[in-house]
Amino acid sequence: MNWLNVYGLIIMMIIMIPNIIFAMKEKNFESKYNNKVVEIIEQIGRFGSMGLMIFNISVLEFGYWFDNNSNTFWYWAYNYNL
Predict the structure, then answer these.
(1) How many domains does the chain have?
(2) Domain that holds residue 29
(3) What's the average model confidence in pLDDT over 17-24?
(4) Is residue 61 domain-resident?
(5) Which of 48, 56, 62, 80 is 20 to 30 Å from the Cα of 10, by its Cα?
(6) Span 44-75, pLDDT tens digits
(7) Euclidean distance between CA atoms 7 and 72, whole angstroms
(8) Taking the CA of residue 8 as centre, how many other CA atoms within 13 Å lie in the half-sphere pointing to its CB?
(9) Is residue 1 part of a domain?
């Protein structure tokens, strides 16, 4: 099972560079927003999306409906939108 997404890990490292620089410069940063429920939901969403970019979940690996060289998708999309 291929559980580690190397490309996602590289992208997350690049995305985190500005956050690390800001954290190093602003040691005494205090948020003026004090809604704990929203802050917890925000952290779950943030770290959940980061984790899903790096780690593959085998349940979600169903593959594609259509073949790579097939025009079935475009035929379906065209006829469905008429």
Answers:
(1) 1
(2) 6-80
(3) 92
(4) yes
(5) 62
(6) 999 999 998 888 877 666 665 555 656 666 77
(7) 29
(8) 12
(9) no
